[in-house]
């Protein structure tokens, strides 16, 4: 103990508290048991109890030091533009972000798959209900027909109901067709090829076209029009001279 006091007197410096910032806290009150904890009450083998005691001592020291720092006008909060280097590198944080993003995408895909499965189940359920209802209606109609055939009933209401339902379906489909109209493909084909009708034999002669001779020109028809020379007409004028004639023309030009 004397040696420790001697070492303490050697390195101890008489400086202001703001330069030292040392805080010594006494006994800390446990908020649960409302009793002062001491070294005898703390079990050193109990890690949780020991760490909690350290935590309460540090908290008490902070609560004691903060008012003193504020009184000395020493800032205790980090400014907004303070830059501190991260403990992990940007590459490591990028890997973590990518991993989190992949996990989130996997969760979204699984959620969508669950929704699709639920929708399929609901669609199958609705389809089975519709089939069961149709089978039930068909069975009721067959039973009514059998009763009528056996003479047990003289009512034909089921035929009227079926006829009205079929007419309603036809009216609905016709109204849908009128409202919908032709699609884009049909409109393009109509614009390109016409709207149907007879195409074969459209250029054949009829009685009226056969008797109409107003557009007939005999000179043009028999190759006797202006500019026609002899038997060949225009072809005779543009006839190429023979080989010997061309050679004679070349020799004359020399």
TrEMBL record:
The keyword ATP-binding does not apply. It holds the Pfam family Ebp2. The gene is Ebna1bp2. It comes from Ciconia maguari. Required for the processing of the 27S pre-rRNA. Residues 115-124, 177-190, 231-254 have a biased composition (Basic residues). Residues 102-114 have a biased composition (Basic and acidic residues). It comes from the Eukaryota. GO terms for cellular component: nuclear periphery; nucleolus; preribosome, large subunit precursor. One of its GO terms (biological process) is ribosomal large subunit biogenesis. Its main location: nucleus. This is EBP2 protein. Belongs to the EBP2 family.
């Amino acid at each position: 103990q004397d040696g420790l006091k001697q070492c303490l007197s050697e390195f101890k410096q008489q400086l202001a508290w703001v330069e030292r910032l040392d805080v010594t806290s006494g006994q800390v009150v446990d908020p649960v048991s409302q009793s002062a904890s001491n070294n005898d009450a703390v079990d050193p083998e109990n890690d949780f109890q020991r760490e909690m005691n350290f935590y309460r001592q540090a908290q008490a020291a902070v609560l004691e030091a903060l008012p003193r720092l504020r009184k000395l006008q020493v800032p205790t909060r980090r400014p907004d533009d303070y830059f501190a280097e991260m403990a992990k590198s940007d590459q490591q944080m990028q890997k973590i972000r990518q991993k989190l993003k992949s996990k989130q995408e996997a969760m979204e895909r699984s959620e969508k798959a669950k929704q699709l499965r639920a929708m399929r189940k609901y669609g199958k359920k609705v389809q089975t209900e519709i089939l069961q209802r149709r089978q039930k209606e068909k069975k009721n109609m067959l039973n009514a027909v059998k009763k009528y055939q056996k003479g047990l009933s003289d009512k034909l209401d089921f035929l009227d109901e079926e006829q009205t339902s079929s007419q309603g379906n036809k009216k609905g489909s016709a109204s849908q067709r009128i409202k919908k109209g032709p699609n884009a493909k049909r409109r393009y084909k109509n614009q390109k090829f016409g709207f149907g009708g007879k195409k074969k034999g459209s250029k054949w002669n009829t009685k009226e076209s056969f008797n109409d001779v107003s557009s007939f020109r005999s000179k043009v028809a028999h190759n006797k029009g202006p500019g026609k020379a002899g038997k060949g007409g225009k072809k005779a004028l543009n006839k190429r001279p023979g080989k010997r004639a061309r050679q004679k023309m070349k020799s004359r030009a020399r």
